[in-house]
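fyi for ur records
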Amino acid sequence: MRSLAGTKESVLLPALARSAWLTLWLLVAGCAQLPPRPAMPAEAASPLGMATELDRLLAPPEERHPGQSAFRLVSDGPEGFAIRAHVSRLAGRSIDVQTYIWSGDTTGSALAYILLQAADRGVKVRLLLDDMDARAKNDGLAAIDAHPNVEVRMFNPLPSRSGTMALIGDWLGNAKRLNHRMHNKTWIADNRIAIVGGRNLADEYFGADTEVNFVDLDFAMVGPVVRDASASFDRYWNSEVVYPMALLSPEGVNTESLAQLRTRLNAAMEVAGKGKYAEALRRDDAIARLVGGDWPMTWTSTYRFIADDPSKATRDPDPKNSHVLAAIVPLLRDAQKDMTIISPYFVPGKDGTANLARSAQAGKGIRILTNSLAANDVAMVYGAYEQYREKLLESGVQLWELKPLPGSKTTYSMFGSGGSSLHTKGLSVDEETLVVGSYNLDARSTELNCEQVVMVGSPELARKFMGIFDQQASGERSWKVTLSDGHTSWTDGMKTYDSAPEASAGRKFQAWLAGVLPIEAQL
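which gave:
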């Protein structure tokens, strides 16, 4: 009998055997399931008191404005970091944090350090994270969960806690469930002040990254709206799709791991304190005024805090599941004069495009700013958006696309991560109503992700938002997109392009591919 040695089969058979074992392993891994979630008593945010520094600072202005809440637009990244850090240092009762991404970089570590300090002085800290990004930080989150005053919970978690192959297995067995994520971002201190909006907890959201920094926006809020935010946090915290870290990774929740985390955070803070970002914060006039108590806010009795129900993560994709969309549609439909929209990922779909086109044809001024292909970190989202761009332009909608930030070294991927320039999510209507939050005008935010926004009736805040739009839509920062004789062009007033500016052939191919593949609902 002829030996197989030296033939193609001698290579193929072991490879096939390995492939079979890999397939079997992935099938087994794909069967991995979450541990049973025990019945847990419902928890609620700490009630208001008068004993903490934040009570002393914020209770009097609340009492002077009965039935009203105060809002401040936070467009500056360093200020966004400083507010979170400052109110957490002043907190004496509770801190609740809800986020999609929390990085272990300079600002992410600094915020973890500050929260650990708060817990050490007796503050109750609740951390609620979406597990898609947090799984990679499982060890650190399990360690901080060991603190008696800290509890960590994960939204819609993956069954495994580490390993690439286990992650692939998780998706093989749970793809439908895991495709639903929690995109909400909230930071609440003593139930007195809240910061909500688009910012995740990472350097690029706070102006601290050396290569790429996002243009983003938050609301800082005081008054009864904070209790609305706390009520939303509690709904998520007590939801059946949220699991305690101690259940998911019990072996990691121990005092030794907590001690090691302290050592790492102490070392990180020592280095960060000598860095350029810390020096910039110390020299920042606005931050100095904030710390000193000079912090102008706008009071109004017209506001709504709107959040999707966390059970959205258990339902089949359907626009009817979006509480946020249900609030925004009538606002846009009833606009009398104009609407100004900033959405980094803008895919309006057929119905949204038709509605915007009708409004523009009726004489309403519609301005929209989104990421250019060169600035967008998800090229396929841009590809889905450009399927609707011509109809929008034909109807009279005005479009701008943000350039990559000057001097930035943007990294890209087909489906996400990397660096994008624009992350602001907001819109104003008739120069009277402003909406800011986590919601992108796309199918993923509408049908798959849990989102939240704050809607505020305030001409003053609406004008400030429109000022932010004007600044970002200037020729220095954006290209205006126009349509002439069926041809699309981009101009910044100095130079005109007849195809997506500064975008490589590879990125243009990815965008084209999005128009061919049936994936818009995932973008």
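The first strand starts at residue 69 and ends at 74. thats all i got for now
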